[in-house]
Amino acid sequence: MGIVINILAFIAAIAILVAIHEFGHFWVAKKMGVKVLRYSIGFGRPLWKRQASPDDTEYVVAAIPLGGYVKMLDEREGEVAKHELDQAFNRKPVSKRFAIVAAGPIFNFLFAIAAYALMYMVGVSGMKPVIGTVEPGSMAAEAGLMSDMQIEQVNGEVVESWEEAALTLIDQALDSGQVTLQVRSDRGQSTHQLDLSDTRQLLGSGESDFLQVMGIIPWRPELPAKFGKIIRNDPAEQAGLKPGDEILEANGQTFTDWNAWVEFVRARPDETLDLTILRDGKKLTLKLHTVRHEAEGKVIGRIGAAPYVDREMYKDMAVNVRYGPIKSFTRGVKQTWKMSVLIVRVLWKMITGEASVKNISGPITIAEFAGVSAMVGVSAFLGFLALISVSLGVMNLLPVPVLDGGHLFFYLIEMVKGSPVSETTEAIGQRIGLALLGGLMFLAFYNDITRLMN
């Protein structure tokens, strides 16, 4: 069921974002007097199409929902009737062609602003940025950070949740690398200086959590050694375990919390455990056989169960960030700008080798995030849509032939030299662009598959 939700959410997200991007090209082309022959969401065989008249735009929904396009009247793509020459894209001044091409990414940014604004109006649920554990000898420890401290400001910017705190920390790390944290604890307010200038260490692996690399583990409740969800057909269910069962001992060993139980199971792949549990006030003994599971290059034990979580424990730490329409709009603009700059900085760090290319995600990972955000709620899905829309806007503005940014780059050259680039130059650029995109897609799929295998 999860895979189905992931796929449906991914298709819905891509369809929405492609429609927005292509509508930007479509709308501005119409305003600039260019005849639009087709507006298509998806590629391949049309599943649905509509055309009011032979001279009107044909609207298409196609079978492959991984993109779209706007086909405009253009002498380079076919013969154009004499009476329609003034509506041909290639006949328009370079300034108008520039505006039409730039409109796609611009509409992605405008949509992101709207999605973020609506997200803040609905309300963003999260956890207060309270530190749970600080790893000895880590960057956080050297800065004097300790357990139970709540981060209130990062370089003067107020943060209300771990999501905001982590994003702002990454942004500041890629900017100056010097971060000032204002925190609050039982001992009062204090200020701490973090040196995050070593981005190779922070983003070099592409596999570790950013906060974890810093040495910070966010606050989590102490979970009792008690079963919550039992996964169907996995060892826990086959052994007869049920939600609510409390673990008393296994192989003669007792457990203080769920983490201790997890470590015990992970260390015993493909073993039979003599388990004593408490169910409805009665002691029961069961045989539980773990299965072998490979994770992070190691073979561990697994039983297919999740801990029991007392929701009351989260109430004091939960936060819901919500604003009125005007402040939500300003936050939407600010968040869109922040994410755009952050993506550009990370891309540059990848080019210079200071960040790992493992940070690049492909459609499989994006589909997983789409499904998870859709299941979490409207606010999370809006945030996901905004983030992907910003990513599409930034990526399409890169000066790579085939992308919108490549065309814009050629138009800038045309503005400077007074004439279009030669067809030979454009053809060579197209081949280079296709090769770069092909390599990027291969890398993204490789990263996705590697994550799945791990």
Question: Gist?
Answer:
By secondary structure, the chain is of the alpha+beta class. It has helices at 2-31, 94-122, 139-142, 162-175, 199-203, 210-214, 235-238, 258-266, 325-351, 363-376, 378-397, 404-417, 423-453, and strands at residues 36-50, 58-72, 124-127, 131-134, 150-154, 157-158, 178-185, 188-195, 216-218, 227-230, 246-250, 253-254, 272-279, 282-289, 291-295, 298-302, 305-307, 318-321.
Question: Care to describe what's here?
Answer:
The chain is an alpha+beta fold. The protein has three domains: 96-123 and 324-454, no CATH class; 127-221 and 310-321, PDZ domain (Pdz3 Domain), CATH 2.30.42.10; 227-308, PDZ domain (Pdz3 Domain, Roll). The chain has helices at 2-31, 94-122, 139-142, 162-175, 199-203, 210-214, 235-238, 258-266, 325-351, 363-376, 378-397, 404-417, 423-453, and strands at 36-50, 58-72, 124-127, 131-134, 150-154, 157-158, 178-185, 188-195, 216-218, 227-230, 246-250, 253-254, 272-279, 282-289, 291-295, 298-302, 305-307, 318-321. A hairpin with a 7-residue loop joins strand 1 and strand 2. Helix 1 crosses helix 10 (363-376), helix 2 runs antiparallel to helix 11 (378-397) and helix 10 (363-376) runs antiparallel to helix 11.
